[in-house]
Amino acid sequence: MVLRNLFRRKAAQEQQGEETQQTQPGPAPVEAQTDDVPDSVETQGERDIEAVAEAGQFSGVETVDEPTPEPTEKKGLFARLKQGLSKTRNGFVGKMDRLLTKSDIDEDVFEELEAIMVQADMGVQTTLALIDRLRDAVKERRLKHAEELRPVLAEFVTEILSRNSGQLAMSEDGPAVYLVVGVNGAGKTTTIGKLAYRYKQQGKKVILGAGDTFRAAAIEQLGVWADRAGVEMIKHQEGADPAAVAFDSIQAGRARNADLVIIDTAGRLQNKTNLMKELSKVHRVVEKELGRPVDEVLIAVDATTGQNALSQAKLFSEATPVSGVVLTKLDSTAKGGIIVAIAHELGIPIKLIGIGERYDDLRNFDATDFVDALFESGEDE
Q: Which residues, at least 6 apart from 196, have a Cβ–Cβ distance to it below 8 Å?
């Protein structure tokens, strides 16, 4: 009851904050230019970092770190997934296992389990829904011992994630087109680079579109990844119209018989209304040029930002029809429960997860594999 009352007060505060939020003007787009930016890549150093606002915004610096080389003998896919989720597992399942060593199920067990789930960033709504289901399961299945709750919780989490997961679409009618959105620092550039590398290794022709024209560094970062993956990139000058870059990228994809065009977008903060409107404009231009829906609108969210990731996914989906979530940096956080909150509260399919720095550590999301790796006991390899 205490947690439910806190949630009601939190929801009221968020609603009041949204009503008082002010729209800030953004930079006016200029006419598209075709001149290329210099080939030299500036040092990844000082960047503007916007402050974190109460509405849940986040902006960071996304660097272009050299991925860890591929090992000569790769670990099994499940072992790699389990290793990538070790911090989340130790932070969530480890605490849960210590709690459930109690002999009997009582109210104290449910209250402590609520706290553990909220601390793992499963979110208040999702936590309360799961706890309610556990209470019902105790009655229906006549559970007595606390340790019996563990597999039941894993079952319920699997159900949530299975309902909200899916594979990436690949159109056979001309090049497939992916738009990648998200705030600066969430892992957009890394996600695009790893996707380009993946499909290039599959023998597909990939073209990248440098649609984040507000920062020259963003164009250069994407260029580094394009070079690494061995794919082409379409770019304009800094300050050019992002929609023009998207248009030209699709034209190039058709002219060069590309299988896939991946378009980057500005890492705009989600409470900047005018910039979110511009993102909607880019989406409209792309769909008009394609004459059909975009194959994927993927939002990259940083798992380490916790509930901010949920806020970002919600507000970006209001600006453009987000078709899938890429949850990055799961290997860097003990609060990976946010993946369950996003799936449960927003119903947006989880399509990719980042569990490391290697090129193939951007994994297709599989609910069963994820929960098995998360809930499995034992030492990490």
A: 206, 208, 225, 226, 229, 231, 262
Q: How many CB atoms lie within 10 A of CB 111?
A: 13
User: Per-residue confidence at 18, pLDDT binned at 50, 70, 90?
Assistant: very low
Give residues with Cβ within 8 angstroms of 11, minimum separation 6.
none
Span 140-192, pLDDT tens digits? 999 999 999 999 999 999 999 999 888 899 887 889 999 999 998 899 999 99
CA distances from residue 34 to 119, 168, 244 in whole angstroms, order as listed: 49, 31, 10
Report how far residue 59's alpha carbon sits from residue 51's, in angstroms, rounded to the nearest whole number: 7
Tokens standing for 182? Answer: 């998200």
Query: What is the distance between the alpha carbons of residues 219 and 236, in angstroms, rounded to a whole number?
Result: 9
Q: Check residue 18 and give left, alpha or beta (phi > 0: left; psi -120 to 50: alpha).
A: alpha
Structure tokens of 289?
């040029």
Task: Give 229-268 as a DSSP string.
Answer: HT-EEE---TTB-HHHHHHHHHHHHHHTT-SEEEEE----
Q: How many CB atoms lie within 10 A of CB 108?
A: 12
- Strands 206-209 and 350-354 turn out to be unpaired
The predicted model scores a pTM of: 0.78
